[in-house]
Design a protein that fits this description.
The chain has one domain: Vaccinia Virus protein VP39 (Rossmann fold). Helices cover 28% and strands 27% of the residues. It is built from six helices and nine strands, in the order H-H-E-E-H-E-H-E-H-E-E-H-E-E-E. The longest helix has 14 residues, at 3-16. The chain starts with a helix and ends in a 13-residue tail after the last strand. It binds S-adenosyl-L-homocysteine. S-adenosyl-L-homocysteine is lined by residues 58-61, 84-85, 87-88, 90-91, 115-118, 121, 144-146, 161-162, 214, 216-218, 221.
């Protein structure tokens, strides 16, 4: 299978369907090999617009959702980004490709910290990121991401990729003023992407498309 041709075909469809608008997100989706983040036996499906199982009852999100969430987050070169819910590591790699582009001078590079609660998935994501060439731009941490990762705060951008009943307060605390957060908020069976911007006057939020994510399990998420 010609994965590169498949990737280009998917990206042009994402543009036509309206999930993808900016040059930076398009470039990142063309650069990151999604086939390296899905289980070996599902590689042929890597460029279908659908979520795929990655083990432990979890999924890698559909490309259209990754595209839309990344557009809403609006990351930039040099940003410090926190992701909650590493899963396969694919979304983290897409974010890294934007904040620390391959080929750009290392001094300009930002960084992605990504938290995963299931240690085996974190280990698998580290391997995926290593193979795809992102291990020096993404740090995978095992823990409860609803508590954020205060060690590296504040962040310019925070993305939550598991469904939460509301935005975990520690994440808003760890967001820089002027920073932005994107998270799927709702009940277990349907959520809406919520964008939150931290301004000097407080937090402004607005809603985007409806989505379906696996639950965010933790102190400020759902209880196991
Ligand atoms: N962004 C991922 C997909 C995320 S699936 C990708 O690109 O593949 C959601 C992930 O969130 C799952 O792996 C799940 O184990 C994890 N998760 C759920 N609750 C969590 C929490 N409190 N902290 C960290 N990770 C969590």
């Amino acid at each position: 299978m010609d994965f590169e041709a498949e990737r280009r075909r998917l990206v042009s469809w994402l543009k036509r369907a309206g999930f993808l608008a900016s040059a930076k997100v398009e470039r990142a989706l063309l650069a990151v090999p999604r086939e390296l983040f899905v289980p070996e036996e599902l590689r042929e499906l890597a460029y279908d617009d659908r979520p795929l199982p990655i083990g432990h009852g979890q999924t890698i999100s559909a490309p259209s959702v990754v595209a839309r969430m990344t557009e809403l987050l609006d990351p930039d070169v040099g940003h410090r980004v926190l992701e909650v819910g590493t899963g396969s590591g694919y979304q983290a790699a897409v974010l890294a490709e934007i904040v620390a582009p391959t080929g750009a001078p290392r001094e300009s590079w930002g960084h992605v910290w990504s938290i995963e609660r299931i240690p085996e998935l974190a280990e698998q994501a580290r391997r995926n990121l290593e193979r795809a060439g992102y291990s020096d731009r993404v740090t995978v941490v095992v823990g409860d991401g609803t508590l954020g990762y205060p060690e590296e705060a504040p962040y310019d951008r925070i993305m939550v990729t598991a469904a939460a009943p509301s935005i975990p307060p520690p994440l808003l605390e760890q967001l820089r003023v002027g920073g932005r957060l994107v998270a799927p908020i709702g009940d277990r069976w349907s959520q809406r992407l919520v964008v939150a911007e931290k301004t000097p006057r407080g937090v402004e939020t607005w809603e985007d498309i409806e989505v379906l994510f696996v639950p965010l399990v933790g102190r400020y998420g759902w209880h196991p």
